[in-house]
Specification:
Two copies of one chain form a homodimer. Chain A is an alpha/beta fold. Helices cover about 40% and strands about 20% of the residues of chain A.
């Protein structure tokens, strides 16, 4: 007797492109295994005849070689498997197989019924440009640091950066609620400092605090910051959860942009043939989870991303995904001002140039340095 | 002029043991880099003289070779850097350096002031044994599957498993809120089925649904399940966030045990010289984040963990961490009943034996199979 699922599945499916290590036999076995492991996780020969076997499990849509010992498998899953949530969607895309070697998620191909589950970035590129009144040029970003400074000193930095013309002044991602720079005090002081600078300069800089808080306190602390006048939030999705970032982005009572930070996320990309591609992780998934910009380490900085990996992130930031807006790539990680012309050559103008510690090396005068940074970006 | 931090730091520090790839010069450079990258993320030569340089940054406490091209570095950080939260603690332990190659977190050595931030497992080994009235023997666990079954069929499975003597009957980790097995209906039916079976059998089985919900709905759905009579929750910390799992565990109005699932977590352990060790990830961090048991793929199953990695997980489950209770290792992933004697030899009795699909292969009679499973475990 055939097993019928009730209500019947719609037949609509989403696709994940996996890169699989091994010769053809090995890679095909991996693909078949993924179809089972990511859905029913059940001995295939014991599955009931009918809808579960015919529809619930993954299906190999395409299988082709991509190098001597690697194959690409496009696998489709019914949209119903994703259970209507980002959490369960990630579970299907790369849950258990994150533990199996030689499997990398290369790209997601999502139908409207999956995309409609998510609002995506609140502002996206266009909205963030409007907020900052910067219709065309690359945006400028820096971080308040080093950890250990008082809120007064951090606010003084924020004032100077804003006065000099930096658009987005964010907390360093390691600023939490340390006793030497308590969050409540910090967000008031820094938001006020940036507002004061804007009054004087006529610019439209915003301050974005880092939200490194326990689940129970996240919303309260985000609202407190909003009342203090912050212009958005820095969020590390691997630390607080991709879905928690999405919830913050979709929260209308906050209504503020979010920049995603890669802290604790690197393990997904660090092995070239396992994990999740730069394109899907820093691009597609970060957009689904509602960030308006995605910070990642630029090539040639302190980290190890290649130029090609970085341009693939840009692709993931802007590949059409229906109503899910394109977002800004925000390459950072040891950038200095002499890198700017080269960065613009590669990234174009839809870019957030993030320079942190490098600004402090230029001179002690952060206003002057920020003006120089702004001029550099505007002149190009 | 020296920079003084206010309030002054207590001087108390926590330690992380890192394994670093490279020759002595390279590995030492990595260790020094970690001290900066994980704290101030600022050019070292530009740091102000005083407390930041002397205390805020990481300090190499020990540095020694562990193989021809690997070194162990023990690095200490002031407890204040962790900002009093699990989120920021993880940020310091392995935030940005997750993006840098050749660095693996081997172990955490935490003083009371860090451990006191966390409640740890609600029940731990002793509490879970009391709940299940199984003072000494290994515990039995299985999963309701395959995805695609109706709530009625899943509840029927739950009844049979419970009647046969399985202690913990959990949702398969892929069960979310799919239209064919809606969560609200599922938790009522399955909790009721297990309760009915307990009435008949005199056993004390519990049902644990999988909490694959958006942040906004997690607590509501957890409470609904509690009212329905579930005995705990299955939670995947990589999917909902380690800190969100902690919040669920510490929530007194729920007051239920949690089993941690490794979905989406594998990328942290899959590269042998990067990420986080099995010991620290599936053991120490899972305990800090409040799980009472930690599911991971046993050696010799469908996944790739070695016997040594599995025994290191057990070490992490029980290493003394003050009030943070020891938890149960729950090796699974393709286990079958013939593996039980061998598992008990290695793991001893403080173990949850998790067999999912393997139970269905034994026979069509799940009650009989469960009784056989129970007898096997009790007889040893």
């Amino acid at each position: 007797m055939k097993y019928h699922i009730n209500p019947p599945l719609t037949g609509e499916r989403f696709e994940v492109l996996y890169r699989l290590q091994g010769n053809e036999v090995e890679a095909l076995a991996k693909a078949k295994d993924i179809c089972i492991e990511q859905t029913v996780e059940f001995p295939e020969d014991l599955l009931p005849e009918g809808d579960i076997r015919d529809q619930i499990i993954g299906q190999i849509v395409d299988f082709s070689p991509c190098s001597e010992d690697e194959f690409l498998a496009r696998i489709s899953y019914p949209v119903e498997d994703a259970g209507g949530t980002l959490v369960q969607f990630l579970n299907v895309v790369f849950g258990n197989i994150s533990i199996k070697p030689g499997i990398r998620v290369e790209a997601l191909d999502l139908p409207e019924s999956i995309l409609n589950l998510f609002r995506g970035p609140r502002l996206g590129r266009d909205g963030l440009r409007r907020l900052l009144q910067a219709p065309q040029r690359p945006l400028l970003c820096t971080a308040l640091k080093p950890m250990g400074l008082s809120t007064k000193d951090l606010a003084s930095q924020a004032y100077q950066f804003a006065l000099g013309g930096i658009d987005i002044i964010k907390d360093d991602h390691g600023l939490g609620n340390q006793p030497f720079c308590p969050y409540d005090e910090r967000v008031y002081r820094c938001a006020q400092a940036v507002s004061d600078a804007n009054q004087k300069s006529g610019f439209h800089a915003i301050y974005m605090p880092s939200l490194n808080f326990p689940s129970e306190m996240l919303l309260e602390k985000a609202h407190l910051a909003k009342e203090a006048g912050v212009g958005g939030f820095l969020v590390a999705p691997a630390l607080i959860g991709f879905d928690t970032m999405r919830a913050l982005a979709e929260n209308d009572s906050l209504g503020l942009p979010i920049i995603s930070h890669p802290s604790f996320l690197g393990s997904y990309t660090i092995h070239p043939s396992m994990g999740i591609s730069h394109y899907a992780l820093f691009g597609q998934l970060t957009r689904l989870a509602g960030a308006d910009a995605t910070i990642y380490p630029n090539f040639g900085g302190r980290f190890s991303f290649s130029k090609e990996e970085c341009t693939r992130i840009v692709d993931g930031c802007q590949v059409p995904m229906k109503h899910i807006a394109p977002i800004f790539p925000a390459p950072g990680g040891g950038m200095t001002m002499d890198r700017i012309p080269g960065m613009l050559d590669i990234y174009g103008r839809d870019l957030i140039v993030l320079i942190g510690g490098g600004l402090h090396r230029q001179s002690n005068d952060l206003i002057k340095t920020s003006r120089y940074f702004r001029n550099l970006v505007e002149e190009i």
